[in-house]
Hints:
Order of helices and strands: HHHHHHHHHHH
Largest sheet: none
Amino acid sequence: MREAFAREYTGVDLVFVTRSFLTSRSETLVGHSKGGSLPLPADCSKMNKTPTLPQKLMAEILGTAFLVFVGAGSITTTNFILGPKGVFSMADLGIIALAFAFAIAAMVYTIGHISGCHINPAVTIALAVSRRIGWRVAAAYVVAQLIGGILGALVIALAYGTSAAATLGYGATNFNAATTGYFVATAMEAIGTFFLLFVIMGTAVDGRAPSGWAGLIIGLMVAGEIAAFGPITNVSLNPARTIGPVLVQLAFGGTYDLTHLVVYIVGPIVGAILGVVVYEFITRARQAGSAEVSGVEKVEKTAVESK
């Protein structure tokens, strides 16, 4: 995912480098072939490996659908197993948290090199604000993510039936307005998404991050936040993850207070933007000619900061 973000937002064409290497490698294999071997793949030099916008949008649709299907679906499954008299425990919360972690990690490693694996409108908007993605492309990404959220919820409905909308629910996030309140719920969603983007920037966007760890760390980050304040807001951090199940749940006869959606839209977007801004602030390269900081070496300019 780190390489995907580098290509998407810093203009580094890693695909071109990879294609050039594979082409030269193929030519070497041809020169030393003694015959009778399997035919080589099509000439990589004649194929454009850079994903098109429709391919990226399809990746975002499928990635968000999988996140909702597995993550939100684990909530429906838990309700189904517990039944009406079941007692929800920390173990149940832990399983839900791991389901989200697995879904996010799987999609980061699967579509990260295609679309960047945003699968979250808050992530896309924050990256657009920081000029790492154009606003027109960002708008298309958000629409794709919302479609994916609906499709993922429809898969849950297919698995448990339309009657489950009123009994089990389809994993829509919610909060108790009487005990938690709109302000606290919005603040928690903003804080949670702030740290999510802070981690994404540090593990997937920053060129100095260790390679290959982004999917695992980001997934575990979300799991940790679900364990930390799951009972407060159900931890969305993602408008598409909430809106999809809510719409499908209402379509099949379930109930939901639509005024609660403001928490799961405003909170994640504000938190995501702040996460990017703060990370950029603490990693910003020192301006030429500024005073030296005693005992601190000059940090090499990264791919994130060089745009």
